[in-house]
Design goal:
533 residues, alpha/beta, Rossmann fold, GMP Synthetase, Chain A, domain 3, 3 domains, 4-stranded mixed β-sheet, globular, disordered N terminus
Length: 533
């Protein structure tokens, strides 16, 4: 593989890059999905036809199209067709509630929604009486009868594909390519504006650090309707040659193992909760000899999970990376052959990382502070939110809200989210420190730690724990285990056993839900006690 450029290429829209790269990579590229097999040439033709169908449906340059679908080939086809038509892709996870989806449709001013039949009732209800939405495109059959009577025009996806192949509608590379909505963990979700240049730079950086001739077959279980999936869909535009992709509709550990064995998969992007699910399976019963690298992102990877994987599959590299929606999914990547346990790698090519003290000055190597980022991958800003944009991009750096440190060699370590910090008796407690210790207990499968209000200490440390099926431990055992391995400030005074740790729609630990549960219990307790006096 040629040595990567020092700075990512800019100055070409995504549709222009696609036009330039299709002839180079299409001939040998293959996509497998369930019982389907699609060549690169077939996918390129479908993209051109769907773009033509979108233009015939009245889509104008710069207009937003919401894509709310489970994983299928049509997701990537739709993104590329939207760009070819000069419009803006707005991916939405199908797990969003009707109210959350309505907020995205209304705030973005989307004119079209592309979905599949199983989500159509929710989409039609969310889009009802919104003046901007002109039609809903439905990929797949059958269309539910109740949706047909909902009032909005329904356009079968197959009708888009009978249109003549569209000529490219070029756009300013610095202009808007995607409008992505954050998870809304601190309030209403915000639209993140990602330019053609930024998305291309992120995909180029990921390709330059992860692609190699012996990593030519990738298994893709992550949702394409998320920022990571959007970036992955652009990576082939920068690939030096063709490759094979195996797409999962959604993640299931047994199916993942079967597909990895069947297709001789080399590499797969995962999130920590997926790795934990795989560890519960008989990994050794499958032929995973072709597997060389698993990448982990979206949330911190517990050290014990990584260690257990390395013990059971010593030939597989477990590499953490780091990114966020505002940086088009990439900030740091782990160089091949240089995995450093606990680190999320080095800044991706073209990306600068700075650790900032509370006073705004740069921290020294090894010193903790807020992770700040700049470079071509950065968002343009938040949609219709100039003040929030100015706050996030102050001083020319994107302030992530994450606490981390850089070592002397430039490797980045994530400590925790600033907003997840627990302050107990004036001392800082990072949930990840407590979770990593609890996961060392042989009976623990997963753990999530949050703070609950406490009159004496301000906050108290509470751990939610999922045990193995044959576990014998009780909460008191785990409190004692924490006390032995953590300082007096950090160990959890309360452990709650749960069937499963709740996850968000992108499979991150849902700390917001856990904190809400504790707050609701505290409120109910105060009501039962009645007024003081």
């Amino acid at each position: 593989m040629p040595a990567p450029m020092v700075t990512p290429p800019t100055g070409a829209s995504l549709q222009r890059l696609a036009e330039q790269s299709w002839d180079r990579i299409a001939a040998g590229s293959v996509l497998y999905y369930e019982d389907e097999r699609w060549t690169g040439e077939q996918l390129a033709e479908r993209i051109r036809r769907v773009a033509g169908g979108l233009l015939e449906a009245g889509l104008q340059p710069g207009e937003r199209v919401v894509v709310c679908m489970a994983n299928c080939p049509e997701v990537g086809i739709t993104y590329a067709a939207i760009w070819r038509a000069g419009a803006v892709a707005t991916p939405v996870l199908f797990l969003l509630s009707q109210d959350e989806l309505r907020h995205v449709l209304s705030d973005s001013g989307a004119v079209l929604v592309v979905t599949t039949p199983e989500f159509l009732p929710k989409v039609t209800a969310a889009a009802a009486h919104l003046n901007d939405v002109r039609a809903i495109v439905v990929a797949g059959e059958p269309i539910p009868e109740q949706a047909k009577a909902a009032g909005l025009p329904l356009l079968p996806y197959a009708e888009l594909e009978v249109a003549p192949q569209a000529r490219l509608v070029d756009r300013d590379p610095a202009g808007l390519a995607a409008l992505l909505y954050t998870g809304g963990t601190t309030g209403r979700s915000k639209g993140v504006m990602i330019s053609h240049n930024a998305l291309s730079a992120a995909a180029w950086a990921a390709t330059a650090t992860s692609y190699d001739e012996d990593l030519s077959c990738a298994l893709l279980p992550l949702p394409l309707s998320h920022v990571y999936g959007l970036m992955v869909s652009v990576m082939n535009l920068h690939a030096p040659g063709p490759g094979t992709s195996v797409l999962m509709r959604w993640f299931d550990p047994v199916s993942w193992l079967e597909l990895a064995q069947q297709h001789r998969v080399n590499v797969s992007p995962l999130v920590p909760s997926m790795l934990q699910m795989l560890l519960l399976q008989p990994l050794e019963a499958y032929d995973l000899s072709a597997l060389a690298r698993l990448t982990s992102g979206s949330a911190p990877l517990p050290a014990q999970v990584a260690e257990d994987f390395r013990k059971r599959l010593p030939h597989v590299e477990i590499a953490e990376g780091y990114g966020c929606t505002e940086t088009a999914a990439i900030i740091s990547t782990m160089p091949r052959g240089q995995v450093r346990p606990g680190s999320v790698g080095k800044p991706a090519p073209g990306v600068e990382v700075r650790i900032e003290r509370p006073d705004g000055s740069a921290a020294a190597p090894g010193e903790e502070g807020e992770i700040c980022v700049r470079g071509p991958v950065l968002m343009t800003g938040y949609w219709n939110a100039p003040q929030e944009t100015a706050d996030a991009l102050r001083g020319g750096w994107m302030h992530t809200g994450d606490v981390g440190r850089l070592d002397a060699e430039g490797f980045l370590y994530i400590v925790d989210r600033i907003k997840d910090l627990i302050i107990r008796g004036g001392y800082n407690v990072h949930p990840r420190d407590v979770e990593d210790v609890l996961l060392k207990h042989p009976d623990v499968v997963a753990a999530a730690v949050v703070g609950r209000p406490d009159e004496k200490y301000g906050e108290e440390v509470v751990a939610f724990v999922q045990l193995r099926e044959d576990a014998m431990a009780v909460p008191a055992d785990l409190v004692e285990f924490g006390r032995r391995h953590l300082s007096a400030v950090k160990y959890p005074r309360e452990v709650r056993l749960v069937d499963a740790i709740p996850l968000t729609s992108v499979m991150k630990t849902d700390r917001k839900l856990l904190r809400a549960m504790l707050a609701a219990e505290a409120g109910a307790s105060r009501e039962q006690q009645g007024p003081a006096g």
